[in-house]
């Protein structure tokens, strides 16, 4: 009642309200550009922000002052975000309004004697978004009603094609980041995975200083740089997965474990299209578990964990109540091909079947570390094949990686994720950005974008195996719809596939798809459904995808909007 009364009657004591809208930043060549906006107006889904100016002195504002801002909008909708200390810019709070109309807000501070921070109110008039950016047009990400995949707020399924950009965000210049993002947009990626504080002991950004000041508080200069880069990616339609905001490898254990830091990052990125992971490639850690739970109470976005290649850890994080979806890392297993392929297949399928039901997304498998296939492992074909295997065993998204380092790859300099900047290196980041395997990811994305992929379910029992269990990389995988009106099978290295079609509906046609060049081939003729049917792979192809579906589906080029 006190919250409502603040909007219905005037305050008895005078209040000092100082609102200042910080110019919205968008990366440009060599810096940022500002766009003026009335602090009382916003656009649906886009970032809006305002300042709160303290009246009383505070010795350590980032660590001692806690401010929450609650919004109430049309139809009784509510949301809450923490404010964050932005150095010489004071306290700031941000929001991305999910619907047009009038939104009113109220601030509460743990120091109620500061009227500049506590009890402030305001009103924002939000207009509808009219552009084409899917993150603004369709809304924030959420878990679908089926709890099998991610979707936007309006029900549009979200097709996850990720890239491991681990160190790119902290090592690139603004111009280099823009080049990287623009390229991945053209290649039709939808998610970038970055480490918020960098990978390695006290990794430094291009600005010079580490992410934390000597007293353990976040350095605003560093976080503004990351802020601008995430904002640029969002404006190009890419979601950013921020990892390592709990106990990371970056050598900042104490400040990163603090509740104050969780409030800081949750507030700074409250209006961005991000996903949170406290962990970065680590086995189960109570501190990361606690940080994940803390982020769930503070941040409006989805929370998961990037768990490392350790199945017990993956299952523990899957079961965590705060984890919106299961972040799987099927892993590279130090280059062991059999284990890498077996994990992508078996771990994914087991997690699909695990309760409580959650979407499964393979956040990291074996990378392409050479940019070609002239090696026993870490090849372009491994990155490609593991993507198809993950999808058809139950993963509702796949994240690709380019580059690795010694001793796993003796000639490697880190490619994309380590942001190799040596021009003579075979995996300099610009070279790795255009490796053939990135195009293979585009083909994978376009194939599923043409289907109602969210209706597919793993169907290993339909496959009559042509490879023994010991020959893991050659095992065929398949998914089908519950209605029996669509089946997708993947042949990693097989001349033919035999499928039991007795549970499929009639009237299906068959089409072959080449994962390397995107070529498709429709096969005419009746399709028997009496039992096991063998389909020979097209001549001259290596791996191949078989699609059985309704004739009208074959002309479909994009995933339709779900009602």
Structural class: alpha/beta
Q: Which second-level CATH architecture of the largest domain applies?
A: Alpha-Beta Barrel
| Helix run count | 14
Indicate the low-confidence ranges by residue numbers: 1-37, 201-205, 556-563
Quick one: biggest sheet?
A: 6 strands, parallel
- Shape from CA axes? globular
Number of domains: 3
In the CATH hierarchy, the third-tier topology of the largest domain is known as TIM Barrel
Instruction: Report Rg.
Output: 25 Å
* Spatial strand arrangement across the major sheet: 17-16-15-14-13-20
Q: Please, what is the CATH homologous superfamily of the largest domain?
A: Glycosidases
How much helical structure, as a percent, in the residues?
A: 10-25%
Quick check: average pLDDT? 88
Would you mind describing this structure in some detail?
With 563 residues, the protein is an alpha/beta fold. It folds into three domains: 2-130, Immunoglobulins (Immunoglobulin-like), CATH 2.60.40; 152-251 and 274-288 and 303-451, Alpha-Beta Barrel (TIM Barrel), CATH 3.20.20.80; 456-555, Sandwich (Immunoglobulin-like). It has a six-stranded parallel β-sheet. The chain has a six-stranded antiparallel β-sheet with strand order 21-23-24-29-26-27. Strands 3-10-9-5-6 form a five-stranded mixed β-sheet. Strand 14, helix 6 and strand 15 (239-243) form a beta-alpha-beta unit. It is globular. The relative contact order is 0.09. The model is unreliable at 1-37, 201-205 and 556-563 (pLDDT under 50).
